[in-house]
Amino acid sequence: MDIKEIQSLIKFVAKSGASEVKLEMEDLKITIRTVGSSSGSPETTIVQQIPVPQTQSVPQVAHTPAAQEPAATKTESAPKSEESKYITIKSPIIGTFYRKPSPDKPAFVEVGSNVSQGDVLCVIEAMKLFNDIESEVSGKIVKVLVEDSSPVEFDQPLFLVDPS
């Protein structure tokens, strides 16, 4: 199963409203859990890939209906409204975030760097593949939201960009 298939599965689970889906194949076990918000859309998606010993079993899918749980209360802070004018660049995949193409090279972008649409901002390693993450907009990098060499989740904010 490749990363695109996993992304499609995550999107399908998010749209279906399921709270948990387990997929077991011959050499792979995936569990996707969603935590719903008050609007009914998923807030967090967690994917775990666990290699399982090879057995002669048929792929199984277990579907758990979404539970109606109250959403956690969040407090809004003043910087949040200030950051609302910025565009958030989010991770399209799950993996490890790297700001540099290699340890001995400079970072792709720094705070204050001007970027154009299509410029590489970082790389995310997923399943031993390095994926370039490109800017969706032109503007100025205002904030880097993730530490170098740290794990990131699908749709996790990575950068704030001022489009003006």
Please give a handful of descriptors for the protein shown.
Biotin_Carboxyl_Carrier/Decarb, 12% helix, Biotin carboxyl carrier protein of acetyl-CoA carboxylase, four-stranded antiparallel β-sheet, mainly beta, 164 residues, globular, 2 helices, Biotin_lipoyl
What do you see in this structure?
About 15% of the residues have low confidence. The protein is built from two helices and twelve strands, in the order αββββαββββββββ. With 164 residues, it is mainly beta. β1 and β2 form a beta hairpin. The radius of gyration is 18 Å and the shape is globular. The strands form three sheets. It has a four-stranded antiparallel sheet with strand order 3-2-1-4, with helices on one face. The termini are far apart.
Number of strands: 12
List the secondary-structure elements in sequence, H or E: HEEEEHEEEEEEEE
Quickly count the helices.
2
Report how far apart the termini are: 41 Å
Shape: globular
**Portion of residues within helices:** 10-25%
Uncertain spans:
37-44, 63-78
- Secondary structure category: mainly beta
CA-atom Rg in angstroms:
18 Å
Strand content: 35-45%
Mean pLDDT: 76
